[in-house]
């Protein structure tokens, strides 16, 4: 049995349980047998013993844990994480699977040409956050020509627009700052413990868009009107988890958001051009008008 054959069988087992939610061994074995016939080259048929070994390897290699329900006599994937984390994990798994197909598929797959996101630091940073250990690294700001040494107390990680960011307390001035992982180098975990008193980051960013922290005492009630075509995209991929639909007809999609009026949010609205109109609050509409006028003055 080749390693590639085992890997393909692992992927098929995960796919079956993700689609069916639960399945008996007979159902899984039948599915694998059918896939063997369709493939025509690899043999995915398994014995009960081989399947048990596959279950263990899937947990070890992919961090996806398959459990057995003795009362129902079926297997299922244990959801250890919050739904959004599990969804992202399986999304990454799907991409990994698609990009590792045997056949040469480069002529059909077009990847965005962008710099590395700094994801190689994620595991070390999570370790430091969990164990409350100070870290040290070199950091380069866009408006400076040289890097600076930083010693910080790591608190949380956040993703935004294909980039990962670290929120940490700078030991130099005791301020919480945000660092882009792709501009971070020579990361070291120090054997210096700290007490993390800023733990509820989900609450801190509940009404934020992007990486800018709350800039007011309370979030604003924002009402936006999109044209009908753009509205379809907004419904399929909401701007924010607080998004509520107020009007949805052939003329417009009108939504409300409870959100802080940060620079990141303003830039997002500008990206929609004339397909969106700010109905409330008025100060956001005025700020958007100023940005458009400033851009127009350049031409």
Keyphrases for this structure?
alpha+beta, SH3 type barrels, Alpha-Beta Plaits, 26% strand, five-stranded antiparallel β-sheet, 299 residues, four-stranded antiparallel β-sheet
Please provide a written account of the structure:
The protein is α+β, with helices and mostly antiparallel strands. The protein has 3 domains: 97 residues, Arc Repressor Mutant, subunit A; 84 residues, Roll (SH3 type barrels); 91 residues, 2-Layer Sandwich (Alpha-Beta Plaits), CATH 3.30.70. The chain is 37% helix and 26% strand. The protein is built from 9 helices and 12 strands. The chain has a 5-stranded antiparallel sheet with strand order 7-6-5-4-8. β2 and β3 form a beta hairpin. α1 packs across α3. 15% of the residues are buried. The mean pLDDT is 87. InterPro entries: CBASS_pafABC_assoc_protein, WCX_dom, WYL_dom.
Blueprint (SSEs and pairs):
Layout: H1 3-20, E1 22-23, H2 25-39, H3 48-62, E2 66-69, E3 74-77, H4 83-99, H5 122-130, E4 133-139, E5 148-160, E6 163-170, E7 176-180, E8 184-193, H6 201-204, E9 220-227, H7 228-236, E10 244-248, E11 252-259, H8 263-270, E12 276-280, H9 282-296
Antiparallel strand pairs: 1-3, 2-3, 4-5, 4-8, 5-6, 6-7, 9-11, 9-12, 10-11
């Amino acid at each position: 049995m080749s390693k590639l054959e085992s890997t393909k069988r692992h992927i098929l087992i995960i796919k079956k349980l993700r689609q069916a939610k639960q399945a008996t061994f007979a159902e899984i074995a039948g599915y694998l047998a059918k896939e063997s016939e369709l493939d025509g080259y690899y043999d995915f048929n398994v014995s009960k013993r081989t399947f048990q070994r596959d279950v263990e390897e899937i947990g070890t290699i992919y961090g996806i844990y398959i459990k057995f329900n003795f009362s129902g006599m079926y297997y299922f994937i244990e959801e250890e994480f919050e739904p959004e984390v599990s969804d992202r994990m399986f999304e990454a798994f799907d991409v990994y699977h698609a990009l590792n197909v045997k056949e040469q598929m480069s002529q059909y797959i077009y990847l965005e040409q962008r710099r590395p996101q700094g994801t190689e630091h994620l595991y070390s940073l999570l370790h430091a956050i969990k164990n409350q250990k100070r870290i040290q690294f070199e950091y380069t700001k866009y408006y400076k020509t040289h890097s600076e040494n930083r010693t910080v107390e790591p608190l949380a990680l956040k993703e935004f627009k294909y980039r990962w960011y670290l929120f940490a307390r700078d030991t130099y001035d005791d301020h919480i700052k945000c660092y882009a992982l792709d501009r971070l180098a020579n990361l070291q975990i120090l054997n210096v413990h700290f007490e993390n008193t800023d733990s509820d980051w989900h609450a801190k960013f509940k009404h934020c868009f992007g990486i800018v922290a709350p800039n007011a005492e309370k979030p604003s009630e924002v009402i936006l009107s999109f044209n009908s075509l753009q509205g379809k995209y907004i419904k399929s991929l909401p701007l924010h988890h607080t998004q509520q639909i107020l009007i949805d007809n052939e003329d417009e999609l009108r939504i409300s958001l409870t959100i802080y009026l940060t620079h990141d949010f303003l830039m997002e609205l500008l990206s929609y051009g004339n397909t969106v109109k700010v109905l409330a609050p008025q100060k956001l509409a005025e700020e958007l008008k100023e940005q458009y006028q400033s851009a127009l003055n350049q031409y």
